[in-house]
Amino acid sequence: MHCPFCRHPDSRVVDSRTTDDGAAIRRRRQCPNCGRRFSTSESASLSVRKRSGASEPFSRAKVVSGVRKACQGRPVTDDQLAILAQRVEEDIRASGQAEIDAHDVGLAILQPLQELDLVAYLRFASVYQSFDSLDDFDAAIERLRACEDEAATAE
């Protein structure tokens, strides 16, 4: 790391702290040449590879925007959407990949959305999984009913 004051090519880390709920690290550094201190921030980047082949940084705001459309008219709060987006990002980061397909982001949204609101889940899944007929909806509803039945018998 170059010193921003004297451009010396080296610096020593004096202190490190996590920020943004552990998503970034703030480091306090000192230049051995001029002795001045400065701060740096490090975070792991997560990129999304679009169908066109282009990459862009992962955005929780885009997740919230896409899910908000499915939740229109449903009793879902902005806080719940923010928590869903955070959970999706944590799940994706847990995979250990620095770049993930946009399709995989959509798949990561499905489970938390199913737990949040079943109608919104069906709306999102119908677009995301390209439902073509009523049979596709019927199959998805049957899967949801089977999951509910399993959960009821487990209690």
Characteristics:
3-stranded mixed beta sheet; 3-stranded antiparallel beta sheet; 155 residues; alpha+beta; 6 strands
Question: Topology, pairings included?
Answer:
Elements: E1 12-19, E2 24-30, E3 37-43, E4 47-49, E5 55-57, H1 60-70, H2 78-94, E6 99-101, H3 102-116, H4 118-128, H5 134-154
Parallel strand pairs: 4-6
Antiparallel strand pairs: 1-2, 2-3, 4-5
Calculate the terminal CA-CA distance, rounded to whole Å.
56 Å
User: If helices are DSSP runs of H or I spanning 4 or more residues, what is the number of helices?
Assistant: 5
In this structure, how is the largest beta sheet organized? 3 strands, antiparallel
Using only C-alpha atoms, the radius of gyration works out to 22 Å
Total E-strand runs: 6
Overall helicity: 40-55%
The helix-strand sequence is: EEEEEHHEHHH
Strands side by side in the biggest sheet: 1-2-3
Structural class: alpha+beta
Beta strand % = 15-25%
Give the rounded overall mean pLDDT.
90
Shape: elongated
Ranges where pLDDT stays below 50 over 5 or more residues in a row are none
